[in-house]
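Hi everyone,

Forwarding the result from last night's run.
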Amino acid sequence: LGESAQQLSKMRAGLCSVIPEPLLGLVTWEELERRVCGSPDVDVASLRRHTRYRGGLEESEAHIQMFWEVLEGFSQADRRLFLRFAWGRERLPLESDCT
C-alpha cells in the first residue's frame, strides 16, 4: 500500500506551496477539484459569454447561431469531447477565473 507514498508526498508538498496546509481542511476534495480543474459541466452560456470573434465575424451571423444551437443540444459528454478537440481540455475554468 505504500508504493505511491513518495509521489503523494511530493504532490502534497506542491499543493501546500500554493495553498497553506491549514487551509486545506476548509475545503472538500470536490471543491478543491473544481477550483483546480474547473467544473465537469460545460456551461454553454459561459462559453458563449467569453467567446471572442475575429476576422470580421459576429455572433449574430447565422452559421454562428447554428453552432451555438448545436452545442446546446449536445450531451455533457459530447460537450467535453468538443472542448477537448477545440481546446485540449475537457473542462472550462471557473467563471470567476475568466473575468
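The longest helix spans residues 5-18.

Cheers,
N.
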